[in-house]
């Protein structure tokens, strides 16, 4: 997967066959640093490739690091909500989770 995910990645991720659990529709929530895909019971957060100086998500390595940190920190108070950090591989047109 490239450093900068193209816009059609979010569209391609709205395919129920990509997920190993039942999907009850899709809803996308956009924040200034993330895109969240709600699939019913589960949510998938994708960090946007950007650099604010105080937050640097500009590379895949940085995004992976901050996803792992978010998981570690938020599990302390909301363990049932934070399950794992998963890579998105494949292509933007045919992603693999």
Annotation keywords:
97 residues; 25% helix; 5 strands; 2 helices
Order of helices and strands: HEEEHEE
Class computed from helices, strands and strand pairing: alpha+beta
Rg from C-alpha positions? 13 Å
Strand content: 15-25%
Count of distinct structural domains: 1
Strand order of the largest sheet: 1-2-3
Sheet having the most strands:
3 strands, antiparallel
Low-pLDDT parts are none
Average pLDDT reading: 93
Oligomer type: single chain
Number of β-strand runs = 5
End-to-end separation in angstroms reads 12 Å
Helix content: 10-25%
| Principal-axis shape | globular
Number of helices: 2
Helix and strand topology:
Blueprint: H1 8-12, E1 27-30, E2 34-38, E3 43-47, H2 60-78, E4 89-90, E5 95-96
Walk me through the structure.
It is a single chain. This protein has one domain. The protein has two helices and five strands. It has helices at residues 8-12, 60-78; strands at 27-30, 34-38, 43-47, 89-90, 95-96. The longest helix is centred in the C-terminal third of the chain and has 19 residues, at 60-78. The N and C termini lie close together (12 Å).
What's the gist of this structure?
The protein has 2 helices and 5 strands, in the order αβββαββ.
